[in-house]
Specification:
This protein has 391 residues and is an alpha+beta fold. The chain has 3 domains: 18-65 and 141-267, no CATH class; 80-130, no CATH class; 296-390. 39% of the residues lie in helices and 18% in strands. It has helices at residues 40-64, 101-114, 120-125, 144-161, 170-176, 263-267, 280-316, 321-334, 341-356, 368-379, and strands spanning 18-19, 38-39, 80-88, 91-98, 128-130, 188-190, 198-200, 205-213, 218-224, 231-236, 243-250, 256-257, 259-261, 386-390. The strands form 4 sheets. A 6-stranded antiparallel β-sheet has the order 6-10-9-8-11-12, covered by helices on one side. Strands 3-4-14-5 form a 4-stranded antiparallel β-sheet, covered by helices on one side. Strand 11 and strand 12 (256-257) form a beta hairpin. Helix 1 packs across helix 4 (144-161), helix 7 (280-316) packs antiparallel against helix 8 (321-334) and helix 8 (321-334) runs antiparallel to helix 9 (341-356). It is globular.
């Protein structure tokens, strides 16, 4: 039996030092964990140099979409804000916005440390419902300084997992990489022209593939994280036949998905950077991706909340049959529509119209629509409602 060796330090792998290689870290939803390629020591080195930075960069994105992971927990994102305005030397105006009472108490607790005279209960009694966006600034340091080194390492791990060679500079790059002065690896670049030839059924996920071209004696590793602009790594390839293997995972449920790649089309593309670092077109792609994630999150949560509340109403309220059918129809449409503010506004307007026409003796709670609307508004993590306190 041939001994297995660590691809990084060459040590013989055995029961005591064999380690699972996290090709995509678990903290951002990775599930692919092959053994027999890394020792525990090498795995720890890769984790400290590459995985931790990548996980930190995408932690808020992972939490925002409530991504599925097989270990640990996502961050608890704070949807609240505190704005202080100095009016005079002796007077400061403080505005607190939050999604719910818990968020208000958190903010007021922080202010109490700075202003001991603040009475939290009195401040809470001053709260008002508002219709105005409570912004959450998504902090995602997902530039090439973080993602390129991680993608470069993933490329070699994924290649070796499928019995292909590592990049020729893999070992030296890892050995000399300094997290305080990160460097860009060789043969790594943004590759954003696969929209029409790479398909997946996952609404939001991680996608990667390795394609070896026997004619040109080179391989291309491709990576998308959270459907962001793709990163590619060119690698050596010595086989006499083309090779292809792929891996995709749906971040929302943790299930593996198939990738459909038009390999012939890929062979005829130029395997080179589609964007220079920092160009406006590339930045626009990132903005679009982040907007998609935020909108997707809002719609997903909206659907869940509305579905739950409508089911409660259908089960517990004595409703007019016409309105009950409207609720059922609206519920079915909400499962399929894409998010936009007009959809929500139309849905509220539709409910309001029929609520106003109710015969009061057929409804358990004449104010249930008001409760229904407020409950949705106060349950959504990001929307156009919340509380405001002026101190």
């Amino acid at each position: 039996m041939t001994d297995k060796h660590c691809i990084l330090n060459g040590s013989v792998l055995n029961k005591s030092n064999n380690s699972k290689a996290h090709i995509i870290p678990s903290a951002i939803g990775g599930r692919l964990k092959p053994k027999n390629i890394l020792s525990k020591e090498a795995n720890e080195e890769l984790n400290n140099k590459f995985d931790k930075g990548l996980c930190k960069a995408f932690a808020e994105v992972m939490s925002l979409v409530n991504g599925s992971r097989d270990s640990g927990q996502n961050l608890n994102l704070p949807f609240h804000s505190i704005t202080e305005s100095k009016i005079s030397n002796n007077e400061t105006h403080i505005e607190v916005k939050a999604k719910d009472l818990k968020g208000l108490r958190i903010c007021l607790g922080k202010l109490k440390k700075q202003y001991p005279e603040l009475n939290i209960d009195n401040a809470l009694n001053k709260r008002e419902n508002i219709a105005g966006t409570i912004n959450y600034d998504l902090c995602a340091n997902i530039g090439p300084i973080v993602t390129f080194p991680a993608a470069f390492v993933m490329a070699s791990l994924f290649a070796v997992t499928n019995e292909m060679p590592v990049h020729h500079s893999f070992n030296d790059f890892v050995k000399y990489f300094d997290v305080n002065k990160p460097s860009i690896p060789l043969d790594t670049f943004y590759f954003c022209n696969l929209q029409n030839i790479l398909k997946t059924k996952a609404e939001l996920g991680h996608n990667m593939f390795y394609f070896g071209d026997s004619v040109n004696a080179q391989a291309l590793f491709y990576l998308e994280l959270f459907n962001m602009p793709g990163i590619a790594v060119k690698m050596p390839f010595y086989a006499t036949k083309d090779v292809y293997f792929s891996y995709g995972i749906d971040i929302l449920n943790g299930k593996e998905v198939n990738l459909d790649l038009e390999k012939t089309a890929l062979k005829y593309l130029k395997w080179e950077a589609t964007h220079i670092l920092g160009d406006e077109a590339l930045l626009e792609k990132f903005r679009f991706s982040l907007d998609h994630i935020i909108n997707f999150t809002m719609m997903r949560q909206f659907k869940l909340v509305v579905k739950g509340i409508v089911n409660i109403i259908l089960k517990n309220c004595s409703l007019d049959p016409t309105f009950k059918n409207i609720l059922k129809t609206s519920l079915n449409s909400i499962r399929t529509v894409e998010f936009s503010q007009p959809h929500i506004s139309k849905f509220y307007a539709l409910l309001n119209k029929y609520c106003n026409n109710f015969n009061s003796n057929k409804v358990d709670d004449q104010n249930f629509f008001e409760i229904f609307a407020k409950t949705i508004a106060l349950t959504l993590p990001i929307d156009n409602t919340g509380f405001i306190i002026n101190v």
